[in-house]
Amino acid sequence: MLAVHFGAGNIGRGFIGKLLYQSGFETCFVDVNKEIVNLLNERGEYSVVLADSSQEAFTVKNVRALNSQEQPDAVVDAIANADLVTTAVGPNILPFIAGLIAKGLRQRSQTTDRPLNIIACENMIGGSTLLKEKVYEHVSGDEKAAFDKQFGFPDAAVDRIVPNQQNEDKLMVMVEPFYEWVVEETKLAGEKPPVQGITFVTDLIPYIERKLFTVNTGHAVAAYFGYLFGIPTINEAMANSQVYELVKQALEESGEFLVAKYGFDAETHAAYIQKILQRFANPYISDEVTRVARSPIRKLGPNDRLVSPAKQYAEVVGKQPVYLVKAIAAALLYDYQGDDEATAVQTTIQQNGIAAAIEQYTQLDQNDSLFQAILDQYQQFQAEK
Ligand SMILES: NC(=O)c1ccc[n+]([C@@H]2O[C@H](COP(=O)([O-])OP(=O)(O)OC[C@H]3O[C@@H](n4cnc5c(N)ncnc54)[C@H](O)[C@@H]3O)[C@@H](O)[C@H]2O)c1
Ligand SMILES: O=P(O)(O)OC[C@@H](O)[C@@H](O)[C@H](O)[C@H](O)CO
Hints:
Blueprint: E1 2-6, H1 10-22, E2 26-31, H2 34-43, E3 46-50, E4 57-60, E5 63-67, H3 72-81, E6 84-87, H4 94-111, E7 116-120, H5 127-136, H6 141-150, E8 151-152, E9 156-159, E10 173-175, E11 180-184, E12 198-201, H7 205-228, H8 234-238, H9 241-262, H10 266-280, H11 289-292, H12 296-299, H13 307-317, H14 323-332, H15 340-352, H16 354-362, H17 369-384
Parallel strand pairs: 1-2, 1-6, 2-5, 3-10, 6-7, 7-8, 11-12
Antiparallel strand pairs: 3-4, 9-11
Bound molecules: nicotinamide-adenine-dinucleotide (NAD) and D-Mannitol-1-phosphate.
């Protein structure tokens, strides 16, 4: 079995690649990072180390890699012959890989009617659905009808904290022991991909909202406040009682609406939050706040981990969130020079003012009470700085 995986980065190698190997797949990574592509081809294997007291190491074998910029035809051939296509490139990159995927699917549909699933493993609602839309921008009307029959784009939720790696061995990845990969069964084409570790569900929305609005919401709160307080890593931020409390309170707010909206058991959800707080504090992981805070424009988006739970809390619970609002204000203050989106947000604020920036990034209406709460909180934080 052949899997083509776009993005041989932290989650690609540390999570998806490992599960694919353990499930009997040969994995062909597709990336633009020459060094990683070359090393994967030279060695054909890499190690994944668990970030816990065991430091258990596992060798992932049967891997190779293609450079999509230099070997696009080989990528098309690989997709045409694949049994599964997955991605972990980041939501903003999906539009850039869509053209190549469209070509691969076209070649495949011309040679076989064997079904194929394309699963985007990105932190967003509807990642595979977005990828499908972007792929379909490259295909004709007739092709779309044929593609609809042959290809599935099931949405997915993936959870495993994999920090930026600082190992001497450039291929080695250190990962937390916990992982979860949930895939929407109803959008599959053909059989379920035989990947050990995937949980198939009929409706992904509760799972992705629970994951994104708990793990990623809490993570973002720790990162933006960690950064504001001058703390470099997430576990160090969690050791700060103020940051810990801000994270916990924000997760209690998002949890209140998730429990009300989806009927999750309140105690089970409280235990889920508790486990996540422990994962963030894992002393065996050094995860920079700037990784977790990366791409604040994406994270301030209306359907992402800060604004969506704040809006849904207001709608479902009927109260104004306090801690989620603080987190949004902290994200608006994120001015890390090494992050293009952070500098773009700061430029917008300087040139157009904070109200225009809130409107632009969160897409909230100026008359929305949440909008005013964010504005007030931002101004209060500015005054305290
Ligand atoms: N790291 C985590 O803890 C984690 C956990 C769950 C989900 N995710 C999600 O997984 C995705 C990837 O995150 P990551 O942390 O692995 O990032 P990463 O930066 O480590 O990996 C992304 C990889 O994509 C490659 N890439 C960039 N442009 C490309 C292109 N045009 N074609 C092919 N490859 C390209 C990069 O070179 C890099 O190797 C994101 O959507 C992220 O939200 C990350
Ligand atoms: O990958 P991002 O930028 O969407 O979010 C940063 C982190 O919160 C994220 O990568 C987590 O580590 C991961 O989602 C854990 O499952």
